[in-house]
Design a protein that fits this description.
The chain has 313 residues and is of the alpha+beta class. The protein has eleven helices and 13 strands. The strands form three sheets. Strands 8, 9, 10, 11, 12 and 13 form a six-stranded antiparallel sheet that branches. A four-stranded antiparallel sheet has the order 4-7-5-6. Helix 1 crosses helix 11. The chain is globular.
Length: 313
Amino acid sequence: MKKNNKIAVIMGGISSERNISLMSGHAILSSLRKENINAYAFDTKYQSILNLKEYGFNKVFIALHGRGGEDGKIQAVLDFLNLPYTGSGVMASSISIDKIRTKLLWKGLGLKSSKFVSLTYKQVMEGLDITTKNSISMLGLPLFIKPNREGSSIGVSKIDKISELPIAIEKALNYDNNIIIEQFISGEEYTVGILGDEILPLIQIKTDKNFYNYQAKYLSNSTEYHFINSLTMQQKSKLNELVLSAWQSLGCTGCGRIDVMKDNLGEFYLLEVNTSPGMTHHSLIPLAAKKAGISFSRLVISILELANNESYF
């Protein structure tokens, strides 16, 4: 498949991250067209992906975020249609979007991750037993309460008092029937991008918000992204090794991002993985790629090439 291929950039969808997906998708589409690649927008909210072959598409760039695009469902259908696509496959996608199972897998492999307690809708409705309450109490304060399978910090709360827990749980349950209550790690926040087998320059994130929430990610002009940090070469090497191990343990491929916290003792803790990261010109992966000398157009082409290891140039 060369430049005369017909590429579907699938975007939008029906998840809570629809608007972000549309921004990513249109940035990708514009970049592909500037490189004279035969690419078209395909919004899965209005069109069935079962029609992709009927419309003559023979390769797919996945620009969907969240459930229905990043959770293995779209990937399974594309496998059934025998259409190459960007990003991770069915299993890696379905596990990675699930914060609970991702953390359990990492824990089983001895990879450091933040401590947590998971809750189901049924548990909450029936009332938490004393064992669960004690487990939550042992996490300390502050706490993060998150929907299990949401991205972009949607439905996430940070609480400083245990009395705030019921409202935070209710908020998270609006987005998922399974939620995660996670310990707060005081320290520096980093995100590390991966492109194929290459680790991109790490980014330290600084925000003046309560935490790196939706507003800090997409609306605030005060969020800072730093490539210069206080990490030693040994620490950077350790962080890259941890991230690569975490990525490979899930079977992830293509391009993605893993978020990490460094505590005040210098230990790194894995937070979560993103297998379909934002792809606007201001998103974290493009920023890291730019620092590595990779233009946005080259980044988009590289991700597309990774779908089946073919070269457009």
